[in-house]
Amino acid sequence: AQTIHQWPVAEIKAVGSPLSLGCTIKGKSSPNLYWYWQATGGTLQQLFYSITVGQVESVVQLNLSASRPKDDQFILSTEKLLLSHSGFYLCAWRPGQYAEQFFGPGTRLTVL
Amino acid sequence: GEQVEQLPSSLIVQEGASVLINCSYTDSASVYFPWYKQEPGKRLQFIIDIRSNMERKQTQRLTLLFDKKTKHLSLHITATQPGDSAIYFCSASISASSGQKLVFGQGTILKVYL
């Protein structure tokens, strides 16, 4: 069975500090991977998606970047955090074009 | 780009009642519409979906209706239970050669009391 993990579970960071969030999928080769951001009490906004190693497409610009260094790994990062980056970050994968997405447990980020 | 609007923003009903959540989208290129449920402290969970070549889909207590002409969807939940309390999201998916973009509605908070 496929499993999806995210790390860390939560982070409290200072404005201007760097950030790296990770996502790993186990049990599925070449998954389509997605990063989402959810403001507190808000809707989900797709940030990035990747269909293969080394290839990442940006959906919205939030001063964040993403990379896919391995088939089963998706990294979200920034060199300088803003207050507006606070929120809930979700990683997801899907097995096909018309298929549901499976979401990870998320990372709660608080920027002070 | 695609915009998805979802109404109402919240619903409070007694157990056993039926509820209707409406969703509209703007981009006629959207072809796939999954719905998700977010319970407190739990992962976002898929509940039902429909493709643009269908008009209706039903699973257990959920019925999803799709009108391609008006770009409108509605999710009907019957015989609600306290366990149905969650935030419900509709979404619209546009396929691209390099992947798939998914746009979510604002969510509907459903609270079912005994």
Can you give a write-up of this model?
The complex is a heterodimer of chains A (112) and B (114). Chain A has strands at 3-7, 10-13, 19-26, 32-38, 44-52, 55-58, 65-70, 73-78, 87-94, 102-103, 107-111. With 112 residues, chain A is mainly beta. In chain A, the strands form two sheets. In chain A, strands 2, 4, 5, 6, 9, 10 and 11 form a seven-stranded mixed sheet that branches. In chain A, a hairpin with a 2-residue loop joins strand 5 (44-52) and strand 6 (55-58). Chain A starts with a strand and ends with a strand. Chain B has strands at 4-7, 10-14, 19-25, 32-38, 45-51, 56-59, 62-67, 72-77, 86-96, 99-104, 108-113. In chain B, the strands form two sheets. In chain B, strands 2, 4, 5, 9, 10 and 11 form a six-stranded mixed sheet that branches. A five-stranded antiparallel sheet of chain B has the order 1-3-8-7-6, with no helix packed on it. Chain B has no helices and eleven strands. Chain B is globular.
List keywords for this structure.
heterodimer, A: mainly beta, seven-stranded mixed sheet, 11 strands, 0% helix, 57% strand, B: 114 residues, mainly beta, six-stranded mixed sheet, five-stranded antiparallel sheet
Largest beta-sheet details of chain B: 6 strands, mixed
Low-confidence stretches of chain A: none
Overall outline of chain A: globular
Helix content class of chain B: under 10%
Question: What's the total number of strands of chain B?
Answer: 11
Distance separating the two termini of chain A: 38 Å
> What summary fits the major beta sheet of chain A?
7 strands, mixed
> What is the count of helical runs of chain B?
0
Largest interface: chains, residues each: A-B, 25 and 24 residues
Strand content of chain B is over 45%
Overall radius of gyration of chain A = 13 Å
Order of helices and strands of chain A: EEEEEEEEEEE
**How many β-strand stretches of chain A?**
11
End-to-end CA span of chain B: 41 Å
Instruction: Please state the structural category of chain A.
Output: mainly beta
Rounded to an integer in angstroms, the radius of gyration calculated over CA atoms of chain B is 14 Å
Structural class of chain B: mainly beta
